[in-house]
Write a structure and sequence with these properties.
Elements: H1 8-25, H2 40-43, H3 52-71, H4 78-99, H5 107-129, H6 133-154
Helix pairs in contact: 3-4, 4-5, 5-6
Length: 163
């Protein structure tokens, strides 16, 4: 660097050193959002929305509707397969959330349905990853059959899903 005044380089060095020293002495900023939970209950999985109807409508139904449209397409390019993979994975993972939402009556059946749905969703996701139309279509129907079996038992047969 060229300095017009002979001593300006020294002043610049002192200023930079002072800034670095001040920065080093500042307390480190924390990135923690909150303090440690105060109890085990707070740290555990808890529903944000207690209504199963609302959970299904806002967490699971949008993915189902998108998948229904994407799976109906005859031609599936990379973008379509990516959308299918994303929603298939989301539905499979969301099935894990069903496990802790089991009702008091029929809880064991509920959990069995949730595991079967997760397993079917996982198979659907894997078929979508392989971009295998035939396997994906079969896995998609199996996933919907698992959902419908649960709806039949716990929603009095309402909300039957179709491919």
């Amino acid at each position: 660097m060229f300095y017009a005044r002979p001593w300006s380089w020294l002043i610049s060095c002192v200023a930079i050193s002072a800034a670095a020293l001040l920065a080093a002495l500042q307390p480190a900023a924390t990135t923690s959002v909150a303090a440690e939970p105060t109890s085990e209950a707070q740290a555990g999985v808890q529903p944000v929305e207690p209504s199963m109807h609302e959970f299904m409508e806002y967490v699971l139904e949008p993915g189902y509707k998108r998948l229904k449209a994407e799976m109906a397409k005859d031609e599936k390019d990379r973008a379509v397969w990516k959308a299918i993979k994303g929603d298939a994975l989301s539905l499979a993972e969301a099935s894990n959330l069903l496990l802790f939402r089991a009702p008091e009556e029929g809880g064991a059946d509920w959990k069995a349905h949730a595991v079967a749905t997760r397993t079917a969703g996982q198979a659907f996701y894997q078929a979508a990853r392989a971009a295998d139309s035939s396997s994906a279509a079969s896995a998609w129907r199996n996933l919907l059959n698992q959902c419908n079996a649960c709806h039949k038992q716990f929603a009095n047969g309402k909300y039957q899903l179709v491919p």
